[in-house]
Design brief:
Length: 399
Amino acid sequence: MKAGVAAALAGALGPALLDGEAVAPRSVEEMAGAAALATEQGWQWKLSGRGTWVTDDPPADLELSTRRLTRVLSIAPADLVATVESGVTIAELGAALRPHRLWWPVDPPGRGERTVGSVVATATAGPLRHGYGPVRDQFLGCTVVVPDGRVVETGGRVVKNVAGFDLPKLHAGGFGAFGVIARLHLRLRAVPESDTTLLAEGDRPRLLAAADAARDSGVGLCALELLSPAAAGTSEWCLAARLAGTRTGTEGEAARLRVATGIAWHTLGHDHAMSFRDILATTAESGSSTFRLGCLTGDIATTLGLLEATAGAGATFAGMGTGQLRWSGDVAPAQLIALRRELAAREVPLTIERAPWALLRAAGHFGSLRNGVGPILARLRSLFDPAGSIVVALEGNHG
């Protein structure tokens, strides 16, 4: 935080607003006051949650954090909706929902200290995207504080109240460029009676063929992920499948999976399955940078080869039913920009989820956008943040 900024904030809003080097409001109203004052003073600010998913910090006059917005405001089992503040962690949310036999079917990369706001702002879906859809489908609305201090309510608390322009989707994967997500209305599911994880190991071409067979067979999977040895913490490539539902149903689908793929699967016990998922979540941040890309499922094998040849060794995760690939490792800006250009020629987008600021500043979270899209994005940003107060690199210097 720049010299003088902390004193000015403490004097105007009270010293309790400060938490170490960060400004950490305890309510939406305090967040709005801090944002308005920062914009009025011409300060640039960066956004943060618990700080577990970032690599390093962009230059800014102050850090505005959601780490104290930690309340689970309501849980409505009948509506399958929970309203939470954005600083609630994934682990805290799970603990609050467990007594109600509910869960939020999002398994993002990173440790359990990641906040719900961080997951939505970065749209970092995990393997469960296969069965439950992307992050943008897992919440109904949100409360956003924009830089001039306005508090904007978007979407609704129940499905029937969500109508018109779907503004919440702008914030899912917007990396905080349009304001601070302060509260969220989350879509929940009932905890399934049975939740089974199966694992197969072997060479990549064989597992790719098995994954294609599993997908084409119509087996009711909620996740189907091909994992490199670095991602799975194993000596060989792995294919992981997850089934959820009734006990009879999951047993039947597991049998169908074995027949359809013709490979040897072994079922993980509950504790082993939990530790395996923890490994996948943490290896997704094993390098200094993590990015995702999306391709057609029929092009996964080709895209994996291109990724391996251009980005080099790293932890690789391939959603065999969604075409979402994630890679984590160490990559130079020029290397990533070259990869993005090769992928763009195949109409495969690459989004940087986390990276050192030097790489983000050069390449941007999204990189250069298609003709006509850049001006629209710039106009949207100017509507929410006309003074350019929020430090975030969406397009980068070189795309």
